[in-house]
Every structure is written in C-alpha cells, then in structure tokens.
TrEMBL record:
Single GO cellular component term: cytosol
Signal peptide per UniProt: none
Alphabetized GO MF terms: protein-disulfide reductase activity
Keyword set, alphabetical order: Disulfide bond, Electron transport, Redox-active center, Transport
Domain Thioredoxin span(s) in chain numbering: 22-144
Originating organism: Mesorhizobium hungaricum
Protein name: Thioredoxin
Protein family (similarity comment): Belongs to the thioredoxin family.
GO process terms (BP): cell redox homeostasis; response to stress
Record InterPro entries: Thioredoxin (IPR005746), Thioredoxin-like_sf (IPR036249), Thioredoxin_CS (IPR017937), Thioredoxin_domain (IPR013766), TPR-like_helical_dom_sf (IPR011990)
A UniProt-annotated Pfam family: TPR_19
Length: 324
C-alpha cells in the first residue's frame, strides 16, 4: 500500500468542542501498549471514559444488565474480539441497572446494545447477541483495518470539524473525496447527503444515499437522516403554520392542528417548539389517535439523533409526563 494519503490536502485546522454528560470521570490514562482495553464505567465517569477517550480512539459501549441472558452470551465474545483487535477500539461496559441515565438519554430500549463512539459522538451500533464474526466486522468497520483506513478516519474527522466550524463547502469536498476512494463509507455518505438535504437538494441527497449497499443502509446515521427527510416531506404537505396557530387560538384542544403545527415546526428547525406541542397533546389526551403524539415524538427523536439537546430535553419531559 502506498504511503501517500489519498485524502491529503484537505483542511484539518478545525477543533471539536463537543461535551457530553456530567463532570468527573476515570483517572486512568489513555490506552497504550500493554494497557487494558476493557473496563466498567459509571454515569459520573462516562464523559472521561467514553466521550473524551473516543477523541483518541474509537470506544465501544456495551450496555448490559445482570438479568439479561443475551448479554451473558455477547459480552465474552465482545471482550475476546476487542482484545484480538490489538487496540483498534476500547470497550467500556455499563450496567444499566446501576447506571440507567446514559442509556435513557441515548434512547436505548433493549439490551444488549453496543454503541460505538468516535470524536465524542455515537456513530454506529447494534443490538442483540450477534455472532463473533459480525462483532469482528463491526470492530474492523469502526476501528479500521490499516493505514489507509486511518487516513480515511482523519479525513472524516476533518470533515466533521469543518461542519462544526460552519465551513460546509470544505466538509462536502472532503466527503466527496472520501467517497471517490471508498464509496460505501457510511459516515461520508451520511455527511454529504445531509449537507445536500440541508441545502434543499433532496434529489441529490437521495442519490448519495442510494450508493450504499443494502448491508449498510440501516446504519444509525443513515436511518436518522432518512427519518428527517420523511418528516420534512410530511410537513411540506401540511400548508401554512399560521392557519394552525389560528385554529389553536380559537380552540386549544384542537389536537389535529397542534400535531400538524408540530410537524411544520420540526421542518423549520424549531425542535423544542415541535416537541412541546406533541408533549401538550400527550398531557391532554394520551389516547389521542392511539397514542399518536408519543409515537410521532419518538420518530422525531430518531431523526434528531440520540445525543441532540432537543431530544434529551424532550425525553426528560416525556418521562415526567408518563411516570408522574
């Protein structure tokens, strides 16, 4: 393999500043030769053990519980594959019975669940006790197989940092360069398609998504983008939000108007307003349209992403409503 980086020349002058969770964390040093790649974590240590550590290397988080039979099948295979990977990824295990908050924030509804973090963000994952061969493939996909993939990962990091800094064109150029070398790279497909969609080029976004093989078409980032696109199409057919606001002013119990207004607000990027309107329906009449407002709110969470601030805030409000 050539030593030349096929993604060279792209900007890498951006610095990420994403933070997650609470303060504190593990005092264990970063992984290196001979260090343990597997550890348990807590809610307080999650930021250090997962978010900060994932900026140095990919981190897999295994959400499990002592009563979970499939967890007992998966965890030994997962540990074996991580150790065999020789440092490609680190494994952090979290007992959701003792530490339920993080799993709740990430929207995890069944276990075992394994979520991969890179650069402080969840990027991939799977649920259930999968065969050892699939675990190895997952680790290769997340952690890379060699120098070429390390260069690709650097390019994806630069693209993400460019987007964070508001330099969308540079990010798009990097994603395009990545796809010229590796057309089925999920992060590049999702990133470029999202940029196109946000710019109003829905057809272009669809064309980029179509190039992914079927085996990768259900990756979390791809599913989230498709959910966003579906919601936007739904909202576009609803009409003028002023009409629904007028109807609500006349009749605050007009749940149909409130629901449609929430869909339009979401399409306009007004996530908190959209969530609050759906939460208002749930509070007033949980049974409306067979719990339709809650179902729609969960779909919004999927579209926004597990770690989005609007998702986290609305999840807390939803929990208060359901379990008060």
């Amino acid at each position: 393999m050539s030593d030349q980086n096929p993604f060279g020349g792209m900007s890498n002058a951006y610095a990420t500043t994403v933070q997650y969770g609470g303060q504190g964390g593990s005092t264990e040093p970063a992984n290196g030769a001979g260090q343990n790649l597997i550890k348990d974590t807590t809610t307080a240590a999650f930021t250090a053990d997962v978010i900060q550590e994932s900026r140095r290397q990919p981190v897999l988080v295994d959400f499990w519980a002592p009563w979970c039979g499939p967890c007992k099948q998966l965890t030994p295979l997962l540990e074996k594959a991580v150790n065999a990977g020789g440092g490609k990824v680190k494994l952090v295990k979290m007992n959701i019975d003792d530490h339920p908050a993080i799993a709740g924030q990430l929207g995890i509804q069944s276990i075992p669940a394994v979520i991969a973090f890179k650069n402080g963000q969840p990027v991939d994952g799977f649920m259930g006790a999968v065969p050892e061969s699939q675990i190895r493939e997952f680790i290769d996909r997340v952690g890379g197989k060699g120098d070429g993939l390390a260069q690709l990962a650097e390019a994806l990091t630069a693209a993400g940092e460019a987007r964070t800094a508001g330099d969308v064109q540079t990010a798009a150029d990097i994603y395009q360069a990545v796809l010229e070398q590796a057309p089925d790279t999920v992060e590049a497909v999702a990133g470029l398609a999202e940029i196109l969609f946000d710019s109003g080029d829905t057809a272009g976004a669809e064309a980029v998504l179509a190039q992914l093989p079927e085996a990768k078409a259900d990756a979390p980032t791809i599913s989230a983008l498709r959910a966003r696109m579906a919601l936007a199409a739904q909202a576009a057919s609803l009409g003028n939000p002023a009409e629904f606001e007028r109807r609500l002013a006349e009749n605050p119990k007009d749940h149909e108007a409130r629901f449609d207004l929430a869909m339009i607000q979401n399409a306009l990027g007004e996530r908190e307003k959209a969530a609050d309107n759906l939460l208002a329906i749930i509070k007033a009449d949980r049974s409306w349209k067979d719990d339709g407002a809650r179902s729609q709110l969960l779909q919004l969470f999927e579209a926004w992403g597990m770690a989005d601030e609007a998702t986290l805030s609305a999840r807390r409000k939803l929990s208060s409503l359901l379990f008060a």
